[in-house]
Every structure is written in structure tokens, then in C-alpha cells.
Amino acid sequence: MSRNTTLCAVRGRPTGRLDEKGVTLVELIMAVLIFGIVLTVLNGVFFSSNRLYSATAVRAGQQMNARVGLSVMVTELRTAGCDPGLRGIANMLSATADSAHVQADYDGDGAIGTVEPSETVLYYYDAAQMAIVRDPGTGAQIMIRNVTAFTFTYFDANNQPLASPIAAADLDRVRSIGIALTTQTDRGGEVTADTRVTFRND
Asked: What are the φ and ψ backbone dihedral angles of 48, each rounded to 5 degrees?
């Protein structure tokens, strides 16, 4: 047998050594444990973020509802006393800490109409329903829900607060109205709003 043939035979023979590297049982268990810990942490972060997102979405929705209701209220209170016919329409019919009744004569016909857009509107806080209610003379409508606190504050021409309820003889002294409300979300968070409305028609 030639020398080359002998070398080939030797090289082709198994040597009895295992050169392949494997994973031991201990290493496999450690990898599974580490993966489980990482998965648990990620799971906790995901659920925490999800709860935060849900709470933020609920709060944002409550803020939007309060702002929409306040926007309508501010618009109607601001135009109280509108009187194109110059007939001396009074701004307010009544004023208490939790209710305000205003009127205007938008079309100048001398009559206060209750067909929408109504020329008379009563806003009041219904504690039993925890809601701000709007009554344009044709029936009460809930404007803002989940209200836990609500207050009207009245100011004269000198920006001095007037004690409420305001007597009928002093209603013409009111020049602006402060509105403060607190609403509560279904999950217990609170949203507050505070604004001031000045009559345009004084």
C-alpha cells in the first residue's frame, strides 16, 4: 500500500472524540428560567402601560365632556341680556350658588321664545343625578354628568363678589359669573374646571 493510501485511511478513521458542542441540562434550565423572568417583567410592563392608557383615555373623555358642556353654558350666559330691540331685557331672572336663569331677545321681537335656540335658559346642579342640567323652558336636559361639586359666583361692575342667592332687586348688579365644577371619572379620578363669564350686553 502506498503512503498516500495509508494517510487517507488514517484520516477517514473515527478518532473516538466528540468535537460537537451541545447544551447541558443545567444550561437549558437556566435559559428557561431567564426567559421566564424576562417574560414576567415584560408582561408586568405591558399591563401597567395598558392600565395607564385606559385611565388616561377615561380622563380625557371626561375632560372633553366637561369642556363641551361648559362651552355651551358659557356661550348662553355671555349673551344674556341681548336686546336688539332695546326694550330693556334683563340679563338674569334668578341667581343662586347652584343655579343661574338668564334670558335674551336674540330676534328683537320683544318676546322671549323657548324654541331652540331658546331665549331663556336655566342652568342648575342636580345633586341627586350628579349632573349639570340645562332647561330652555321646554324640559330639562343633562349637560355634564358625574359632577361632584358645582358653584356659581356672581360679581358686580367693580369685580366684587355678590352674596347668593341674589335678591331680585339686585340681579341687575351682576356683571360676570364665575363657574367652578369638579367631575369624577368612573375609575375615581377627578377633573376640575374653573372659568369666568362676562356679560357682553352691559
From this structure: -65, -45
